[in-house]
From TrEMBL:
Top-rank taxon: Bacteria
Gene3D superfamilies linked: 2.60.40.3500, Copper amine oxidase-like, N-terminal domain, Zn-dependent exopeptidases
Keywords for the protein's UniProt record, in alphabetical order: Hydrolase, Signal
CDD domains in the cross-refs: MurNAc-LAA (cd02696)
SUPFAM superfamilies the record matches: Copper amine oxidase, domain N (SSF55383), Zn-dependent exopeptidases (SSF53187)
Positions of the MurNAc-LAA domain: 406-519
Coiled coil: none
UniProt keyword Transmembrane, yes or no: no
The protein's name in its UniProt record: N-acetylmuramoyl-L-alanine amidase
Length: 524
């Protein structure tokens, strides 16, 4: 994974591919305050606030976004520091400073947060991506596009954005996202696709403004990102001999101003070429060309050095199609989805991991270690009893994003999702070391029955004070499709809770109670 600064730089360049198709006069952009559109809904800007682009970073009012997503925002007037928290993740930014903290890791920003009267402006791409949001920017009319969140005060619509899917290991079914019925799929795994890229292609007339077009492409952070418009839809197929992933935009041609690295032109005048894949040892080549003229089809081929999982997502508001090769079960040491046996599939999530240590206890112990120890014990009991299949989000000390955890559960078609954490309080919190107890969180109403049962068993497993069931917009409990809860076993900032949480006896008891709660919920 590249550094955060490199990631922001790349993604800030992507919207430039869209500029020649914006359809607005540049002069108008200089006078408009701008807009923020989240999941197709325009958000209200504070009066007098104008969106700014500082050193390539789009600055927006922090409260506009986080309050619509249900995040927690803390403001320290004396230090002018903003802390954004959700699902155990914490991001800290300070007005005037280009250094930010994400779960204790220092990251460099392109532009420092600034204060405009009573409003604090922050670089939205950095904040959004830390919490799993997709961010786009149209410079011509100063519009920020956000997707991936569910506003806390707005019910889900009947037609949500397409949900990204993960191609399960050893699957021969093509993975793809399409908002409408797809055209005939290319051949499935193991079938050769002739004349993939290259050769003499007949020149194609310039398309009408509403025709499906591919405007540009870039590859970074192990992701192929394609800018499309005019209703262009992607179908994705895995092919072997050699291993590769084929991405087709049926009915589409290249836009006149197509942008891509190492560009070339076929003998027929259509763009063809390769993208820069240096630094990615598992990707040998990514090439593109107009594969067919009747019907027109733009094709990208991702040549891999072996079997490669992938995830496809489409942002309808920006037209960006992403083929993410960072699938959670594609590398060594990561979980493997179980085979489908007809038994319940239990997704067990050990919070944090790797570079994200989670909370640090009073004596320096790390939350991530407690979470993993108990989850592995619970999984071992479930496996031994044999009535369920177990899917882990992680089985070792690896860094894993919030959406990665969701994707693993979705790909396994999990029956339910249980995430385990341990709580803590900031140093400035009053009577910090006195607060204790266990609580269970849920986000969607259908998860409440599971939360109530699991809270009862959580308290039985820890022996701590019963803090009850609480509703909160947390990423892993909000974005999952199955009943999902997050357990906060106890407080690492409380001496009594901390000592017990790291004892073998409590961990064994808690693992047994987690299993008992799952069985009670399933009526087993």
């Amino acid at each position: 994974m590249k550094k955060a600064g490199q990631r922001m730089l790349l993604l800030l360049l992507l919207p430039l591919l869209l500029l020649s198709f914006a359809g607005h006069e540049a002069a108008a952009a200089g006078t408009t305050p701008g807009k923020i559109v989240m999941d197709s809904k325009e958000l209200a800007l504070p009066k007098g606030v104008i969106l700014e682009n500082v050193n390539g970073s789009v600055m927006i009012p922090i409260r506009v976004v986080v309050e619509n997503l249900g995040f927690e925002v803390l403001w320290e007037q004396s230090s002018r520091k903003v802390t954004v928290q959700q699902d155990g993740k914490s991001v800290q930014l300070a007005v005037g400073s280009t250094t930010a903290q994400a779960d204790g890791v220092s990251l460099t920003l392109n532009a420092a947060p600034k204060q405009n009267g009573g409003t604090v402006l922050v670089p939205i791409r950095f904040v959004g991506e830390q919490f799993g949001l997709s961010v786009g920017w149209d410079n011509t009319d100063k519009t920020v596009y956000l997707s991936g969140g569910v506003p806390s005060d707005t019910p889900a619509t009947a037609n949500p954005l397409p949900t990204a899917t993960v191609a399960p290991a050893a699957s021969s079914v093509p993975a793809g996202v399409s908002a409408s019925p797809s055209p005939t799929l290319p051949p499935q795994t193991g079938t050769e696709i002739p004349e993939e890229v290259g050769g003499s292609i007949t020149a194609t007339p310039t398309p009408a403004a509403t025709s499906p077009v591919v405007k540009g492409a870039v590859f970074s952070e192990n992701r192929l990102i394609v800018a499309a418009a005019g209703g262009a839809k992607a179908t994705v197929t895995r092919v072997t001999g050699p291993d590769r992933i084929v991405v087709d935009f049926a009915g589409a041609v290249f836009a006149p101003d197509f942008s891509g690295s190492f560009p070339g032109v076929s003998t027929g005048g259509s763009p063809q070429g390769k993208l820069d894949v240096s630094g990615y040892p598992h990707i040998s080549e990514i090439r593109y060309a107009l594969f067919s003229t009747n019907p027109a089809t733009v094709r990208f081929v991702i040549q891999t050095t072996g079997y490669q999982n992938y995830q496809v997502s489409t942002d309808e508001s920006t037209g960006l199609v992403t083929i993410d090769l960072n699938a959670a079960n594609s590398g060594p040491g990561t979980p493997v989805n179980p085979g489908f046996t007809g038994r319940p599939v239990i997704a067990l999530d050990a919070g944090h991991g790797g570079k994200q240590s989670g909370a640090v206890s009073l004596t320096g112990k790390l939350e991530k270690s407690f979470n993993l120890a108990v989850i592995l014990k619970a999984g071992a009991i479930l496996t031994q009893e044999g009535w369920a299949d177990v899917i882990y989000t992680r089985t070792s000390d690896v860094t894993l994003g919030l959406q990665d955890r969701v994707n693993i559960a979705q790909a396994a078609n999990a029956t339910l999702f249980v995430s385990l954490h341990a709580n803590s309080l900031d140093k400035g919190y009053p009577n910090r070391d006195k607060v204790n107890g266990s609580e269970t969180y849920y986000s969607r109403s259908e998860s409440l029955p599971l939360a109530e049962i699991m809270q009862k068993h959580l308290v039985a497993g820890t022996g701590f004070k019963d803090n009850g069931v609480r509703s909160k917009s947390l990423h892993v409990t909000r974005e999952t499709k199955m009943p999902a809860i997050l357990l906060e076993a106890g407080y690492l900032t409380n001496p009594g809770d901390e000592a017990a949480l790291y004892s073998e006896q409590l961990q064994d008891n808690l693992a047994r109670e987690i299993v008992a709660g799952i069985k009670e919920y399933l009526g087993l």
